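debug: dumping io for the single-chain case to check the tokenizer round-trip. Nothing else runs in this session.
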Amino acid sequence: MNSLVIKSIERARVEKAMQDYAQWLRAQFAEVEHVLWYGSWVSGFPTPHSDVDICLIVSSSDVPRRERISKYLPLGFPVGVDLCVFTIEEFERLREISPQWHQAIRDGNAL
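debug: decoded output
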């Protein structure tokens, strides 16, 4: 016997979670300059397995880029989260290192 699992996408719930998350970030972390939401949720083509792609740009950090993520992760988010955290200078360098990724983030929504 085969079974079928249907997952639904609760867009309104994800959008509310993103707004709440951006407000929380700004209230808790003065170094957060920009909250950018990009990827399939923003382009309008998420699937039931799509995560939320978020880029934070912070004024500065003494912590290596990959180690910064845990500080800013949202709790209880309704879908998976793919979070990247760049300093302003690192984000500008991304334009040279990975222009397509840089542009994808820039094409996202600022919250």
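debug: round-trip ok. The mean pLDDT is 92.
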